Amino acid sequence: MKLKFTKMQGAGNDFVVIDAIHQQVDLSAAQWQRLADRRFGVGADQILIVERPTVAGADFRYRIFNSDGGEVEQCGNGARAFARFVSDQGLSGERSIRVQTMSGIIAPALEDDGSVTVDMGAPVLEPAAVPFDSQGLDGLPEGRDLLWPLNLQLGERPLTVPVSVVSMGNPHAVQTVPDVDTAPVAELGPQVEHHPRFPKRVNAGFMQVVDRNHVKLRVFERGAGETLACGTGACAAVVAGIRRGLLDSPVRVSARGGELSIAWAGEGAPVYLSGPAVTVFEGEITI
Ligand SMILES: N[C@@H](CCC[C@H](N)C(=O)O)C(=O)O
């Protein structure tokens, strides 16, 4: 099967974006994996699929596959790339669109400076809905948040790491670290991702608070490993930081691949994610 695609990136989180309105796209998990493979395919953290919506009130349906081939509920940096793609390809003439995802409708809007702002909806804070199994665990209250102890291992050394659990449609566990550059992301990330308390696995965020309006963040993503930026991870980290009383909205999030900005007015309010969305190249692949 021949597929036309566009390679895109948002703060270094990279995507293969495919128009499935004008082409037939029905790939297996192994084919998604091959497309995302950096040696045998195009290379991407996520594959994004543009489809016609199946619900009222949406302009498009947005499907997301991690580089491990698994379909997931949400992707924030991808949502900005999605909006840029449908505009550049002439699929929409609107500055603001409504997009159906596995976890509800989100609303990206093109800004005059070329960036994109996405209304990502309200975060889900109830642990069971993240989903996180808190049975038999005592959460440690901090501000309006509860920190949950996760038992992990650093080399030979057992350690207990307190995490905030937040869903932005997809699950996140956020821990604060003194310095993101020396944080043991490669060692702890996979342990958090596969921790038995997260039945759907989890994205593992490592946040360094610089000041009340600025954090540095690294995210070990579920199904993709550490990426250069994670949009939903940035939303989850800022929500956790505000609830813990460490941050005030808006917050600048410095990721290794670029800068994001997050605004959140508090409980029940939507989270706004702003940042870049850039086309790298277009191509065709036989898959
Ligand atoms: N890079 C993304 C998140 C992609 C999905 C995530 N790995 C998951 O499995 O939930 C973002 O920018 O939000």
Q: Say what the CATH topology of the largest domain is.
A: Diaminopimelate Epimerase, Chain A, domain 1
Helix amount, in percent?
A: 10-25%
- SS summary, helix count: 4
Mean pLDDT score, rounded? 98
Q: Which ligands appear in the coordinates?
A: the ligand N[C@@H](CCC[C@H](N)C(=O)O)C(=O)O
Class by alpha and beta content: mainly beta
The CA-CA distance between the termini, in Å, is 5 Å
Cα-based radius of gyration, to the nearest Å: 18 Å
Largest sheet composition = 19 strands, mixed
Shape: globular
Write out the CATH superfamily name of the largest domain.
Diaminopimelate Epimerase, Chain A, domain 1
Q: Number of DSSP strands?
A: 19
Order of helices and strands: EEHEEEHEEEEEEEHEEEHEEEE
Architecture (CATH level 2) name of the largest domain: Roll
Please give the CATH class of the largest domain: Alpha Beta
Low-confidence stretches: none
Instruction: Estimate the strand proportion.
Output: 35-45%
* Oligomeric state of shown chains: single chain
For the record, the count of structural domains works out to 2
